[in-house]
Design goal:
heterodimer, A: 525 residues, mainly alpha, two-stranded antiparallel sheet, 48% helix, globular, B: 1038 residues, mainly beta, 22-stranded antiparallel beta barrel, five-stranded mixed sheet, 7 helices, 5% helix, 48% strand
Chain lengths: 525, 1038
C-alpha cells in the first residue's frame, strides 16, 4: 500500500512540473509562427512594386505565354504556324489543362494588387487612374477570349464569384477610361509609381503617354463594339480621338522584359527559341506578295534552305512531320527575339513585349472614318499614315521602299509552303476606290501592324471577318469544323469545378452553348 | 587513412576495457542446446544481486561474483530461463539454453524505446532482425525491406544510389501531407523529409528533376541491432503526430560487457539495369517509311545495310541499334565495408563503428560515397545512475545524381536516340567553334529539349553533399527497482550543399550565355528534450501495472537557400563569383511542439492486458490555445493461458485497439501575408495567392485494429491475423479555389480518407532436423482505400503539382480511392470502340479513371534453408493489382521505337474494329505510324493506351551463404554469402487495353520505377530503370 502512495505522489509532482513548464512556454508561439520571409502589412510605399507586378504578370511569363497565348491566339490569329508537332490546339482542340495559363495570372496576380491600390489611393490620384487603365487593359483581353468573365466580383476572396455579361463589362471599360483620363489631365508632369511603371516609367512625361494610351485603348474598344452598338461606338471613338490618341511611335507601349528572372522573360521570344512556333503561310503570303520590308525583321530564313517558309494552320501530325514542314525548313521569328548559331537558338529574353502602338490607332481611325465618324482626318490619309507609322515602328527608314509599299498594286502571293497554298487573298496595298475593298485594306494592313500581338489579332479577325485568312486544314473540334472559324474559348474546367454555379449562370449570360462556336457579345456578323 | 581510423577505434574500445575493475571473476559460455551454437546477448545476472553481464557474439560472458558461490540467472529472448549455481573462480562454464516457445517472449521495442515481450503487445508490430538487412545491401537500406513486413510498401529510390525511398504502411491516408512512416532511431525520431525537392509531375521541369535525399538512407544497416515496425497509429500514439503513418523503430547496437570483439562486414556488388523497354530492330530513323535525318522519329525505311548519309554527314550502311539503351547504362560496382568494435566492462560499454559505402549508379558518372562514424557509450555511474550516449556522424556525397522525368533529362535523352543512330557515335558529344565555345552535337530531334545524353552526362551536373550529426545523451536514474526516471536530449542536424551546373548551350537549362550554376544550402535541425518516468507495481498479486509518464519539447527548424547564377560571365566557370545574374530563393521554418503524455499497462495474471495512453500536444503552428489531446485504449488476451487448449496449440491470443492521433500543420498557415518577388526592375510585391486559414484545426486520424495470433505444434506454425480501419479527418488541404476570387487556392480542414485492410503473417518451419531446417514466412497484406468525402464543392484534388495531364495524373476524388489515375481514354459507344472516318480512334474529351496505382494486395514469401554451415534465402515478392501509366512507352510508341510498332508498317492494313460516330462499322485501314502518333502525340499521350496492369511477382532476394567452421584461433566467425536482389520477374502485367489487331502488350518497364517519394505515384515518364544487383558479402568476427 505504501508503495502505491509513493508512486502516485512522485507522478503527480512530475506531472505538475511538466505542465507548468509547458503552460509558460507557449507565449513565444505567435512570434515563432510568423514567417520571417514574408511581409505582414503593406502601405502606399509598397504600391509601386505592386503595380509593377500587376503590369508584368498578365503579359505572361514564358510558361503561361506558351500555353495561354502561344497555343491559342497566336495561331488562331494565323500570325504563327504551330511548329510543335505534339500540340493540337491549331486544329481547334481545346486543351483545358492549358487554359488556366491565360486566366490565373490576371485574377491571382494582377487583380489583388490592383484592388489594393484602387482601395488604398485617392480616386483623384494619378496612381488610382493608372490602376484603372491597367485594369481595363487586363480585362479586355480576358473577356475577348471567353465572353462573360468575373469582373465586378473579381478578387472577392469567396468560393463563388459571379460572371458579368460582356456588354456590361465593356460599358464599364469606357466609364473607367474616361474617368482616368479626366483625373490624369490634372496631374501633368507627375511620375506615378516612378520607375516601377514598367510601360512608361522611363519616359520623360509618363502622364501624357498614359492619356494617349487610355484614349487609344478606348478607341480600340469602341471599334470592337461598332457592329453591336454603333451609337456608343461612335460616341466613344470620337471622344477618344478628341481627347488625344497615340500619333507617333514615341508613345508606343511596350512591357519591359528582363533577363533577371525567368518569369520576366519575353514569352514570345522564349517560345520562338523553343521552336513552338514558326512563320505562318498566311503572313508570308501577304508579305511576299507585297515585298514587305518588314518581312526580314519579322522572320528569319529557314536554317535548312535559307528561304522564307511558312506553315499552314490546322495540320495533322502526319503533315507536320513532313520534312518541308519541320523546324529546320521553316522560318522562325526575327533576330529581335532569337538568333541561330552553332545549331542552337539563342533567345533575346529581354526583348520588350509589344503592348499597343500608334500604327494601330491610325487604322482604327481609318475604319472609323469609313464609318463616317469624325476621326480628325480622312480614311486614306489615316490608312497611309498607319502603314508609315508601322514601318517606323519596325525601324524601316528606307523611304523609297516604304513609298513603293504604300503604292504597291501587287496582291498577296502563294506563300510557297509545302501544302502548295494559294495566295491568301487579293487585296492590294494601294488605296482602292471601292469602299468594300477599302475596309479590307484597312483590316489587312492593321493585321500586319498588329503582329505579333495574337490576342488583338484574333479579336479583330473575329469581329470583322477580315482580312480573309486561310481556312484551317483540319479541325479536330466538331463544334467548329473546317470552313468555320473558332469564335471563343470555352470556360475553364477549373472554374467549372470550383465555381460551378456561377459558370452555369455565365453560360446563360453568354447566350449560347459553352463551346468554341458561340460568338461573344460584340461578334455579331 | 583507413588504418589510422581503425587503430583509433581499437584504442577507444580499449579504454572501455581498462575502466573495468575485476575482482573475483567467473567466465562462461552460453550455447543453444540444440545447435550448439554460441548465443550472443544473453543476460546473465546473479540471483538477489544487482548488475550482470550479457554474452558477446560468441557466447562468452564474464562476471564478478561474491566469494563462495552464487546462483546465476541466465535468460534470453526465445529461450527458457535457467538458474545455475556456480563456484567463484570457475571458468569455462558452459550453459545450454533450451528454445522457448518461439515468439512468445520475443522482445519488441515499442514507443519511447520501451521494450516489451511480443506476448503483451496489444497491437500489431513486426520485428526485423539486423541480419535480415545487412547481408543484402543497398545504398539506401530501406530498399531492402520490401517483402519483409506485411503491410509495408517500399517504393525504391528513383535517382540512383542515395535517392529517397517511399516507405508506406497500411496505405495512403494523407492527401497532401507525407504518407511516409516515421523513423525512430534509439527512441528519437529522426528527420526523414526530402528537403531539396520532391518530383511532383512528369515534366521534371517545374519541380526538380532530382528528388532530394531522405533521412532514412543515412543510416548504416550494420549498426542496426533490430527493427520493429509498428504498423498502425496504435502502437505509436506516444510519438505524437508524425506517427500517424506508422513507425519504424530502429534500435542500434550498443556496447556489450565482455571481451573486446570486432566484426567486419564487407560486400561488393554489381548493379545493372533491371528492366528496359524492348526496342524494334528493323526500321531506321525517318518518317512515313523513308529514311531521313530531318526528324528524330524511327518511322523510316527498313534498315538492310543500304548506304545512307547519317546525321554526321558520313556515308554509312544503314543498321539499327536496338541495344542503344541497354548499352548506355553501365554495370556499376559498389563496395560496402563496415567495421564494428564492441568492448566493455560492467561500468562502461562501448560500441564503435565505421562504415564506408561506395555505390556507383548505372548511369555513368553517378556515384555515392558515404562515411558513417558511430560511437556509443554506456556508463553505469552507480547502481542507480547510468548514462547512454551516442554520436553518429554521416558524410554523404552524391556525384552527378541523375534526374527523372522528361524535358531533356538523362533517360529522355537516351530513349530518344533514333534506332539507326549508334549511341557509341554520340560519345563525341560536342564541337568547339573558333571562339572556344562548346556546342552539343546530336541527331535531329523532334523535341527541341532533347539532347545528346553524353552531353548531359559530362556537361551537366547535380552533386549533393550532406553532413549530418545525430547525437543522443540519456541519463537514467533508478529510484527503486520499480521506478526510474530518464532524461534525454537529442539532436539531429544536417547541412546539405547541392550544386547544379549546366554548361553553356545546354538546351532549356542554360538559358543565359555562359551557362547556369546554382548552389543550394539546407540546414535542418531537430532537437528533442524529454523526461520520462517509468514504473511498475503489483497492485495485487495478480494485477500488475506498468506506467510511463513524460513530457517533451521538440524544436524543429530549417533554413533553405538557393543561389543561382543564371548566366556566367566567363564561359562554364561554375562559381557564383562569375554570375551575370544572381537569383536567391530563401525559406525558413521554425516550429515547436510541447507534449505531455502517459501510458499505463495493466496486466492481469500475465494473460490479460489493458493499455491506456494519452497525450496532449501544444504546437506553435496552430492557433491559440495551440492544444490538442488524443488517447488510445487497447487490450490483449492470451487465450492459451486463460483456458485449456489442445496440446498442439502453443499459443493463442486476441487483441484489439482503438486509437486517435492528432496532427498539427506546417508553420505560417494562419495569417495572410505579402511576398517580395525578385525582379529586374527593383522587384515586386504581391499578396500571397494562397488564402490562409486563421481557424486551422489539428488533423485527426482514428483507427481501430483487431488481431489474433496463433501458434501450433511448438511454434512450428504461426498465424497472425490483423484487421484494421483508419479514418483520417480534418486534413489540412490546399484546395483550389476559383482563380477569379483572387486566390489560386485556400487552406481548409476537410476530408475523410478511410483505409481498411487485412494483414496475415504465416510463419512455419516445415522441416526441422538436426542438420537441415526450412523456415518460411509469408506476409500478406490487403488494403482498401476509400475517399469518403473531401468537402462540399470540392469533388476532387490532384496529388501532383498540376492538373496538366501529359500521361495521367493521380487524383483524389470523392467516392473514389486514393491513387486513382486519370487520363484520356478510347471512346466507346454501345460497347464498341469509336473510330473516326480516317480509321483512327476517337478519344474521350474528359479525363477519367484508368485505374489505381496502389496494389490490391501484396505478398512477400521468404524462405530460409539451413544445411550444416550453408544457408539459402529466397524472397519472392509480389504486388497484385494496381496500374502504372507509362509515359516512356508512349514516347517510344510515338517515336516508332517500341518493339510493337513494327506491325502494320510496310502495309497499312490495320482496320480497327469499331464503329464510326454515325454507327457504321469501320473499314478504313491505317498504318502503324498513324495509329501510334494518334494515341500518343509526343509528350501528351492518351493514358488508356499506355496503362498497364502493374501486377508483378519477382525473385526479390536470393542469398546463399556459408558459415565457415574451422577457423584460425583469432577468428570467431566467418560467413561468406552470395547475394542478389531483383533477379527476375516471375510474372509481369500487360497493357489493360487490347487494341484490335495489336493485342495486349507486355509491360517493358519495372512498375516500381518511380519519380521519388512524394504522393505522385503510378506515372512513369522517363524514369531511370530499377536495378538488379549481385554480389558477395563477407562477415568476419574477431
Amino acid at each position: 500500500m505504501f508503495k502505491i502512495t509513493n508512486f502516485c505522489y512522485t507522478r503527480v509532482c512530475l506531472f505538475f512540473l511538466i505542465a507548468a513548464s509547458v503552460g509558460s512556454c507557449t507565449k513565444k508561439f505567435d512570434t515563432m509562427n510568423t514567417n520571417p520571409s514574408t511581409i505582414s502589412t503593406v502601405t502606399s510605399s509598397q504600391y509601386p512594386q505592386m503595380f509593377a507586378y500587376a503590369q508584368q504578370t498578365p503579359t505572361l511569363s514564358p510558361d503561361n505565354f506558351e500555353i495561354g497565348e502561344g497555343t491559342i491566339a497566336s495561331v488562331y490569329s494565323q500570325f504563327f504556324g504551330q511548329a510543335a508537332q505534339s500540340f493540337p490546339t491549331d486544329r481547334y482542340v481545346v486543351v483545358q489543362g492549358w487554359m488556366p495559363a491565360c486566366w490565373n495570372p490576371a485574377y491571382t496576380s494582377a487583380v489583388p494588387q490592383l484592388k489594393t491600390i484602387l482601395e488604398g489611393t485617392d480616386s483623384k490620384s494619378a496612381e488610382n487612374a493608372l490602376a484603372n487603365i491597367w485594369w481595363v487593359w487586363v480585362f479586355h483581353r480576358l473577356t475577348d477570349y471567353f465572353g462573360p468573365v468575373p469582373y465586378s466580383q473579381a478578387g472577392n476572396g469567396q468560393r463563388v464569384v459571379e460572371y458579368d455579361r460582356q456588354d456590361s463589362i465593356y460599358y464599364d471599360f469606357f466609364k473607367k477610361l474616361d474617368a482616368a483620363v479626366t483625373v490624369l489631365k490634372t496631374h501633368a508632369g507627375e511620375k506615378p509609381f516612378g520607375s516601377f511603371d514598367l510601360v512608361y516609367g522611363t519616359q520623360s512625361d509618363p502622364v501624357s503617354a498614359w492619356i494617349k494610351f487610355a484614349n487609344t485603348l478606348r478607341l480600340r474598344l469602341a471599334l470592337r463594339i461598332s457592329a453591336v452598338d454603333p451609337a456608343t461606338a461612335k460616341t466613344q471613338a470620337e471622344a477618344a480621338v478628341a481627347s488625344g490618341v497615340m500619333t507617333d511611335i514615341s508613345t508606343d507601349a511596350y512591357m519591359q522584359k528582363s533577363t533577371k528572372t525567368y518569369n520576366e522573360y519575353n514569352g514570345l521570344a522564349v517560345i520562338a527559341g523553343w521552336e513552338d512556333i514558326r512563320a505562318s503561310a498566311t503572313m508570308l503570303s501577304m508579305q511576299k506578295g507585297y515585298n514587305d520590308p518588314r518581312m526580314p525583321i519579322f522572320w528569319q530564313p529557314s536554317t535548312a534552305d535559307g528561304q522564307y517558309n511558312g506553315l499552314r494552320n490546322g495540320m495533322y501530325v502526319s503533315e507536320k512531320v513532313l520534312t518541308g514542314n519541320t523546324r529546320p525548313y521553316t522560318s522562325n521569328m526575327g533576330t529581335r527575339w532569337c538568333s541561330y548559331s552553332n545549331g542552337v537558338w539563342k533567345t533575346v529574353y529581354n526583348a520588350p513585349q509589344d503592348i499597343m502602338h500608334a500604327a494601330e490607332a491610325y487604322f482604327l481611325r481609318a475604319e472609323g472614318a469609313l464609318n463616317g465618324w469624325n476621326m480628325g482626318d480622312n480614311a486614306q490619309n489615316l490608312y497611309e499614315t498607319g502603314i508609315r507609322t508601322s514601318m517606323a515602328q519596325w525601324g524601316i527608314t528606307d523611304q523609297t521602299a516604304i513609298d513603293d509599299y504604300v503604292s504597291n498594286t501587287a496582291t498577296p502571293a502563294p506563300p510557297g509552303d509545302l501544302m502548295n497554298s494559294p495566295a491568301v487573298n487579293d487585296y492590294p496595298v494601294l488605296w482602292d476606290a471601292d469602299p468594300v475593298m477599302q475596309r479590307k485594306q484597312v483590316a489587312q494592313q492593321k493585321y500586319l501592324a498588329l503582329w505579333p500581338d495574337g490576342m488583338e489579332g484574333w479579336a479583330e479577325v473575329r469581329r470583322t471577318d477580315l482580312p480573309e485568312l486561310y481556312p484551317v486544314l483540319h479541325s479536330d473540334n466538331t463544334d467548329v469544323p473546317v470552313g468555320t472559324t473558332i469564335k471563343r474559348m470555352p470556360f475553364l474546367d477549373t472554374e467549372k469545378q470550383t465555381n460551378a454555379d456561377a459558370v452555369t449562370r455565365a453560360i446563360q449570360k453568354l447566350g449560347g452553348p459553352d463551346n468554341c462556336a458561340t460568338r461573344v457579345w460584340w461578334d455579331i456578323k | 587513412m583507413r588504418v589510422k581510423i581503425l587503430s583509433m577505434l581499437f584504442l577507444l574500445g580499449l579504454i572501455g576495457q581498462l575502466m573495468a575493475a575485476p575482482t573475483e571473476t567467473i567466465r562462461g559460455r552460453v550455447v543453444d542446446q540444440q545447435t550448439g551454437k554460441p548465443l550472443a546477448g544473453v543476460s546473465v545476472t546473479i540471483k538477489g544481486k544487482k548488475g550482470g553481464a550479457s554474452t558477446n557474439d560468441e557466447g562468452w560472458f564474464s562476471l564478478n561474483i561474491p566469494s563462495g558461490s552464487a546462483t546465476l540467472i541466465i535468460s534470453s529472448v526465445g529461450y527458457t530461463t535457467v538458474e545455475q549455481l556456480v563456484e567463484a573462480g570457475a571458468s569455462n562454464i558452459v550453459i545450454s539454453l533450451v528454445q522457448d516457445q518461439k515468439g512468445m517472449n520475443e522482445v519488441i521495442v515499442t514507443a519511447l524505446g520501451i521494450q516489451r515481450t511480443a506476448k503483451s503487445l496489444t497491437y500489431s508490430a513486426q520485428r526485423v532482425g539486423g541480419d535480415q538487412i545487412n547481408e543484402v545491401r543497398d545504398a539506401s537500406f530501406a530498399n531492402t525491406l520490401s517483402g519483409k513486413v506485411a503491410g509495408l510498401t517500399i517504393t525504391p529510390s528513383a535517382n540512383g544510389p542515395g535517392g529517397a525511398t517511399r516507405v508506406l504502411l497500411r496505405g495512403n491516408r494523407s492527401i497532401q501531407g507525407t504518407n511516409n512512416a516515421l523513423i525512430v532511431v534509439d527512441g528519437v525520431a529522426i528527420d526523414n523529409q526530402t528537403i531539396s525537392g520532391e518530383v511532383k509531375d512528369d515534366a521534371g521541369s517545374t519541380n526538380a528533376g532530382q528528388n532530394g535525399s531522405d533521412g532514412l538512407s543515412n543510416i548504416n544497416p550494420d549498426d542496426i541491432e533490430s527493427m520493429s515496425v509498428l504498423k498502425g497509429a496504435t502502437g505509436a500514439a506516444l510519438y505524437g503526430s508524425r506517427a500517424a503513418n506508422g513507425v519504424i523503430i530502429i534500435t542500434t547496437k550498443r556496447g556489450k560487457q565482455g571481451k573486446l570483439s570486432l566484426s567486419l562486414n564487407s560486400g561488393v556488388s554489381a548493379e545493372s539495369a533491371f528492366s528496359i523497354p524492348k526496342l524494334q530492330d528493323q526500321y531506321s530513323q525517318g518518317t512515313n517509311g523513308a529514311y531521313t535525318t530531318a526528324t528524330g522519329y524511327s518511322w523510316g525505311a527498313k534498315a538492310t545495310g543500304q548506304s545512307v548519309t547519317d546525321w554526321r554527314g558520313q556515308t554509312v550502311p544503314l543498321h539499327t541499334y536496338p541495344n542503344n539503351i541497354k548499352d548506355f547504362y553501365r554495370t556499376a560496382f559498389s563496395t560496402n565495408n563496415s567495421v564494428g568494435v564492441t568492448a566493455g566492462s560492467d561500468k562502461v560499454q562501448t560500441y564503435l563503428s565505421y562504415a564506408n559505402n561506395n555505390a556507383a549508379g548505372i548511369v555513368p558518372n553517378n556515384r555515392l560515397m558515404r562515411n558513417t562514424f558511430n560511437a556509443r557509450i554506456g556508463v553505469n555511474i552507480s547502481d542507480k545512475l547510468s548514462v547512454d550516449a551516442k554520436g553518429t556522424y554521416i558524410v554523404q556525397n552524391i556525384y552527378n545524381k541523375p534526374g527523372v522525368g522528361g524535358d531533356g533529362l538523362i533517360a529522355a535523352n537516351v530513349y530518344n536516340i533514333p534506332t539507326s543512330v549508334n549511341q557509341q557515335d554520340l560519345k563525341v558529344y560536342k564541337t568547339t567553334d573558333i571562339t572556344g565555345v562548346e556546342t552539343p552535337t546530336y541527331w535531329t530531334s523532334t523535341d527541341p529539349v532533347i539532347m545528346n545524353p553524353y552531353w548531359t552526362l559530362n556537361n551537366t551536373h547535380h552533386d549533393e553533399n550532406r553532413s549530418r550529426f545525430i547525437g543522443l545523451m540519456s541519463l537514467k536514474y533508478k529510484f527503486t527497482d520499480w521506478l526510474n526516471i530518464q532524461g534525454r536530449v537529442s539532436s539531429d542536424a544536417y547541412n546539405e550543399f547541392n550544386a547544379t551546373q549546366y554548361a553553356n548551350n545546354t538546351v532549356n537549362y542554360a538559358r543565359q550565355p555562359g551557362g547556369y550554376y546554382s548552389e543550394e544550402y539546407n540546414f535542418v535541425s531537430e532537437r528533442n528534450f524529454d523526461v520520462l518516468l517509468n514504473g511498475n507495481n503489483n497492485i495485487t498479486r495478480d494485477l500488475k501495472v506498468t506506467y510511463n509518464i513524460g513530457s517533451s519539447l521538440l524544436d524543429r527548424g530549417s533554413r533553405h537557400r538557393i543561389t543561382a547564377a543564371d548566366g556566367l560571365a566567363y564561359n562554364n566557370k561554375f562559381d557564383l563569383l562569375y554570375a551575370s545574374t544572381l537569383k536567391e530563393t530563401v525559406s525558413t521554418v521554425k516550429r515547436q511542439l510541447q507534449s505531455v503524455y502517459g501510458t499505463a499497462q495493466f496486466s492481469y495474471k500475465d494473460f490479460l492486458f489493458l493499455d491506456l495512453t494519452a497525450r496532449n500536444d501544444w504546437s506553435s503552428t496552430i492557433p491559440e490555445p495551440y492544444s490538442y489531446f488524443y488517447p488510445s485504449v487497447s487490450v490483449a488476451a492470451i487465450l492459451s493461458d486463460m483456458m485449456q487448449m489442445p496440446s498442439w496449440v502453443s499459443m493463442a491470443k486476441v487483441r484489439g485497439a482503438v486509437t486517435r492521433v492528432g496532427n498539427d500543420a506546417d508553420p505560417y498557415l494562419l495569417a495572410q501575408t505579402y511576398n517580395y518577388i525578385t525582379g529586374g526592375f527593383g522587384g515586386y510585391i504581391a499578396s500571397n495567392s494562397v488564402k490562409m486559414l486563421p481557424t486551422l484545426k489539428p488533423e485527426i486520424t482514428s483507427a481501430i485494429e483487431v488481431g489474433t495470433e496463433w501458434r501450433f505444434w511448438n511454434d512450428r506454425l504461426g498465424v497472425d491475423l490483423t484487421y484494421y480501419k483508419t479514418n483520417s479527418k480534418n486534413q489540412l488541404l490546399k484546395v483550389t479555389t476559383p482563380a477569379s476570387s483572387g486566390y489560386s487556392s485556400m487552406y481548409m480542414n476537410a476530408g475523410n480518407i478511410q483505409n481498411s485492410g487485412v494483414e496475415v503473417v504465416i510463419s512455419a518451419q516445415p522441416i526441422k532436423t538436426r542438420e537441415f531446417s526450412w523456415n518460411m514466412t509469408l506476409n500478406y497484406a490487403l488494403n482498401k482505400n476509400k475517399v469518403i468525402s473531401i468537402t462540399p464543392g470540392v469533388p476532387f484534388l490532384f496529388l501532383g503539382s498540376s492538373d496538366n495531364v501529359r500521361t495521367a495524373t493521380p487524383r483524389v476524388a470523392e467516392g473514389g480511392s486514393y491513387g486513382d489515375l486519370y487520363g484520356y481514354k478510347w471512346q466507346r459507344s454501345k460497347g464498341q470502340y469509336v473510330v473516326d472516318t480516317t480509321g483512327l480512334p476517337v478519344y474521350t474529351t474528359d479525363i477519367s479513371s484508368v485505374g489505381n496505382y496502389n496494389p490490391n494486395y501484396t505478398i512477400g514469401f521468404s524462405n530460409t534453408f539451413n544445411y550444416k554451415g550453408w544457408s539459402l534465402g529466397v524472397l519472392v515478392d509480389g504486388k497484385f493489382g494496381g496500374v502504372v501509366v507509362s509515359g516512356t512507352e508512349a514516347e517510344l510508341a510515338y517515336m516508332g521505337m517500341a518493339s510493337y510498332t513494327t506491325k502494320y508498317r510496310d502495309n497499312a492494313t490495320l482496320v480497327l474494329s469499331g464503329a464510326h460516330p454515325d454507327g457504321s462499322s469501320n473499314t478504313r485501314a491505317i498504318g502503324a505510324q498513324a495509329l501510334w502518333q494518334s494515341v500518343t502525340q509526343g509528350n501528351y499521350a492518351k493514358a488508356e493506351f499506355f496503362t498497364y496492369d502493374a501486377t508483378n511477382v519477382r525473385l526479390r532476394e536470393l542469398t546463399l551463404g556459408y558459415e565457415f567452421k574451422r577457423l584460425p584461433s583469432f577468428l570467431k566467425a566467418a560467413k561468406l554469402s552470395f547475394v542478389a536482389r531483383n533477379l527476375l520477374f516471375l510474372y509481369r502485367g500487360k497493357s489493360i487495353l487490347d487494341i484490335p489487331g495489336i493485342g495486349k502488350r507486355k509491360l517493358g518497364i519495372d512498375p516500381e520505377a518511380s519519380f521519388g517519394n512524394s504522393n505522385y505515384q503510378g506515372v512513369e515518364y522517363y524514369n531511370l530503370p530499377t536495378t538488379r544487383s549481385m554480389g558477395l558479402n563477407l562477415k568476419l568476427s574477431f
